C-alpha cells in the first residue's frame, strides 16, 4: 500500500515516513499543496496523510481538488483543531481528521481502521436500489428519479449505511464508528451536520416511499413508508 505524506514540516514528514515504512507501507512525500497534487497525479497513492497549513495551496484546497476525480482515503493531519475546521475538513471529503500533537501509533491505528473499512465495503454488493433511489458505491453515484444528486463522499456513505439497513436505528456514535471505522474521537454533531446537508439535497426531489427519520434522543434511520 502506497501512502502519500503531505506536510511542509520536513521532520514530521520524515518521522511519519520512517515509522510507516517499518510497518510495511510504501511512502512518498510532498511539502506543499501544489507538489501534493502533482505527486498525487503521478503516483496514484492508496491513501493520503494531508496537512492543512501548507504553502501554495492549503489542505482544504488540495482535498477539494482531489475529490473532483478520486475517492482515495484522505486523513487530515493538522495543528488546527477548532470544531468548525474539523467539520469542514470532513464535509469536503476527508475520511478522518487528526490534531497535532499526535502519536505515531495513533496514525497507524487510523490507517489500519480505514483499510479494514475499505476491505469490508469491497466484499459487499456496491449497487443499491430502493424505489426511486439508486446508489453505486464503486463510483459514488447517487440518483433520485434518474437524476444524479451531488453528494459528498461522507453524505453518500451515510445514506448507504442507512438505506442498506432499512428501518434500523443508528445512534450518532454507531454512525461515527461505522463510517470512520473505529471509536472516533470527534463530536457527534458532525453526524447532525452531515444529515442536515444530506436531507437538504434529497428533499429537492420527491421520495414518498422512504425518508431519513430522526429518532429523538437516539439517532437516525432510513424509514420505509406505507405509500410504497
CATH class of the largest domain: Alpha Beta
CATH architecture of the largest domain: 3-Layer(aba) Sandwich
**Strand fraction:** 15-25%
Query: What is the number of E strands?
Result: 12
Radius of gyration: 18 Å
Whole-number count of domains? 2
Give the CA-based shape: elongated
Organism: Miniphocaeibacter halophilus
Protein name: Response regulator transcription factor
Description:
By secondary structure, the chain is an alpha/beta fold. The protein folds into two domains: 2-121, Rossmann fold, CATH 3.40.50.2300; 124-224, Arc Repressor Mutant, subunit A (Orthogonal Bundle). It has eight helices and twelve strands. The protein has a five-stranded parallel β-sheet, sandwiched between helices. A hairpin with a 2-residue loop joins β6 and β7. α2 runs parallel beside α3 and α6 (153-163) packs across α8. It is elongated, with a radius of gyration of 18 Å. The protein starts with a strand and ends with a strand. The model has no long low-confidence stretch (mean pLDDT 86).
Features of this protein?
single chain; 228 residues; alpha/beta; Rossmann fold; Arc Repressor Mutant, subunit A; 2 domains; 4-stranded antiparallel sheet; 8 helices; 12 strands; 23% strand
Concise synopsis of the structure shown:
The protein is of the alpha/beta class and 228 residues long. Helices cover 42% and strands 23% of the residues. The strands form three sheets. Strands 2-1-3-4-5 form a five-stranded parallel β-sheet, with helices on both faces. A four-stranded antiparallel β-sheet has the order 6-7-8-9, with helices on one face. Strands 10-12-11 form a three-stranded antiparallel β-sheet.
Amino acid at each position: 500500500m502506497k501512502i502519500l505524506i503531505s506536510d511542509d514540516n520536513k521532520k514530521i514528514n520524515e518521522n511519519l515516513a520512517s515509522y510507516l515504512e517499518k510497518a510495511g507501507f510504501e511512502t512518498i512525500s510532498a511539502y506543499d499543496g501544489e507538489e501534493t497534487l502533482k505527486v498525487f497525479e503521478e503516483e496514484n497513492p492508496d491513501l493520503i496523510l494531508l496537512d492543512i497549513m501548507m504553502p501554495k495551496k492549503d489542505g482544504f484546497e488540495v482535498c477539494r481538488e482531489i475529490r473532483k476525480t478520486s475517492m482515495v482515503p484522505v486523513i487530515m493531519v493538522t495543528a488546527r483543531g477548532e470544531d468548525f475546521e474539523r467539520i469542514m475538513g470532513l464535509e469536503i471529503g476527508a475520511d478522518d481528521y487528526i490534531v497535532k500533537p499526535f502519536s505515531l501509533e495513533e496514525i497507524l491505528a487510523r490507517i489500519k481502521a480505514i483499510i479494514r473499512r475499505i476491505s469490508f465495503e469491497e466484499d459487499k454488493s456496491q449497487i443499491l436500489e430502493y424505489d426511486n433511489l439508486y446508489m453505486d458505491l464503486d463510483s459514488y453515484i447517487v440518483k433520485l428519479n434518474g437524476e444524479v444528486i451531488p453528494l459528498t463522499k461522507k453524505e453518500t456513505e451515510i445514506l448507504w449505511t442507512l438505506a442498506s439497513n432499512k428501518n434500523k436505528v443508528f445512534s450518532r456514535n454507531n454512525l461515527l464508528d461505522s463510517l470512520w471505522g473505529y471509536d472516533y474521537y470527534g463530536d457527534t454533531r458532525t453526524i447532525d451536520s452531515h444529515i442536515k446537508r444530506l436531507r437538504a439535497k434529497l428533499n429537492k426531489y420527491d421520495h414518498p416511499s422512504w425518508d431519513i427519520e430522526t429518532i429523538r434522543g437516539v439517532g437516525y434511520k432510513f424509514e420505509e413508508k406505507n405509500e410504497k
